[in-house]
Amino acid sequence: MTGRNPAGRAPALRIGRRPFLAGFACSLAALPLGGCFEPETGPVEIRYDRQACDFCRMIISDPRFATEIRGGPKNKVFFFDDLGDAVHFLNGKDWKDDPTVEIWVMDMEDGKTWLDARKAAYISGQVTPMDYGYGALGSPREGTVDFAEMQKTILERGPSAFCLPERETSEQAAPAAPKG
């Protein structure tokens, strides 16, 4: 019965205080790295049918029109189900003109390739999740417009009726009582 205690069990593993504390400290230091490591630039993976749009709060389900914005004080990634939502969201931020802000759009033809939104070409007349009607393409074609023209048109039209912020929706749903 070598290596066993009188009760017949294997001896407990004893570790010194210093090695234990060193191992514990290393474990704590590694926690932030475990599986949630996000790059500091570029688009990140969207969890389709689970991830909510940061403008209208609807679930992002159609990859062909997905959009991401990376920016703000913490260089955070914001997710959108339609390019138009991203345009309106960014327009409302005080950091909208910061040159480090990144805008990524999905190529509507394959729904798998991220494009730099400022370099993409846009074609109108598409059936998009929030009905803004623009899809992104990797290169210009007949009938496409650049980012600035697309952005100008979307801002002139205003937010989609499908995703007005709550305060506007509730004001429209309950008109003011007549005076008198």
What's the gist of this structure?
With 180 residues, this protein is of the alpha+beta class. The chain has four helices and seven strands; from the N terminus they run αββαβββββαα. Helices cover 23% and strands 14% of the residues.
Using brief descriptors, characterize the structure shown.
3-stranded antiparallel β-sheet, alpha+beta, 7 strands, 4-stranded antiparallel β-sheet, disordered C terminus, 180 residues, elongated
What does this structure look like?
The chain has 180 residues and is of the alpha+beta class. It is built from four helices and seven strands. Strand 1 and strand 2 form a beta hairpin. The radius of gyration is 26 Å and the shape is elongated. The C terminus is likely disordered.
Number of strand elements: 7
Overall geometric form: elongated
The biggest beta sheet is recorded as: 4 strands, antiparallel
Distance between the termini: 99 Å
- Oligomerization: single chain
Rg, nearest Å: 26 Å
Question: Which percent band covers the strand fraction?
Answer: 5-15%
List segments where confidence is low: pLDDT < 50 over at least 5 consecutive residues: 167-180
Pattern of helices and strands: HEEHEEEEEHH
Q: Which bin fits the share of residues in helices?
A: 10-25%
The computed structural class is alpha+beta
Count every helix, treating DSSP H or I runs of 4 or more residues as helices: 4
**Strands side by side in the biggest sheet:** 2-1-3-4
